Amino acid sequence: MSQAQMTEADFDTAPIDEGIGAIIEARGRGLDDLAPEHVGTLLRRHGVLLFRGFTKDTEGFVAFSDRLTEDFSNYRGGGLRFAMLDREAVGGHSTVLTTTGHTQSFGIPLHGEMYYMKHPPQLLWFYAEVPPVAGGQTTLGDGAALFRALKPETQAWFRENDIKYVRNLVEGDWQATFMTDDLEEARAFAAQNDLTMTHDPQTGTVGAEFRCSALRQHGGETLFINNVLFIYLGEMAFRSGWASKNLPGLRSADCPMVVRAGDGGEIPRAVMEDVRQTSDRMTRKIPWEQGDIVLIDNHRILHGRAETDGGKRSILVRLGGPAFPLPKAA
Ligand SMILES: [Fe+2]
To answer: 149-279: CATH homologous superfamily?
Structure first.
């Protein structure tokens, strides 16, 4: 029997939401019954998996994700390490983090995790410690389907133009971002990650730029997977005054990261409007239940968050590389 047949026979699957992912139900099995090869086969097929009924507690999630992940990320270089947006480590595990802005109710549009860095992690884990009652679902979107759904002129713009993520990190923010007070250490980290870094000794502000395509190639398909829309809407929130009103504790009145065309100009408004509308249309939702574990192939599938009602919600996150074969996006 092939690996794929064994997997199919072992676990009935239903999509997580229309046209995306697979729900794997425990049906009397435990997380220890899931071999990395099984999980790898399922993830390569579906792109995102929801494990339901396997555990009720965080330690179960931690042990399972430990077994399937190598090189956990501590979110060094992360784009949102400011004020109330920062992630926090939980339960004494430096790699088990709260989600971005977990004390906030705003929605987050579809994005790939850490695409403003050279090596976005391949695996993104979520665990529903306390699922939201109404709203606040984690969202999903397929990078290949998203690209196909964009207007031809939008596709052409992203094929013909690079983008760049431009950071402006005031004193305090660069230390939080690079997780060091040592400027030389920050420089070394930036160099390793192809970030072009500058430092203004007068103000103490650090600039960092990363230039890349908004598109990736994976399994013969073109994917729209990046942080373009999230950062664009973030900049709008700063410009409109929403950020200063709703995010106390910010060290700067300006958005700490913006996204631009490769030549430094703004991305055309019509392009961004199509990205926004198409992303909205292609957004799917995870119907969280307590104890659910979601494993996302961050090289294929985008994620985000629906606006919450402000009620209690605790979704934990881990980032890292797979302890099983998984094709990378190029
Ligand atoms: Fe994210």
So the answer is: Clavaminate synthase-like (3.60.130.10)
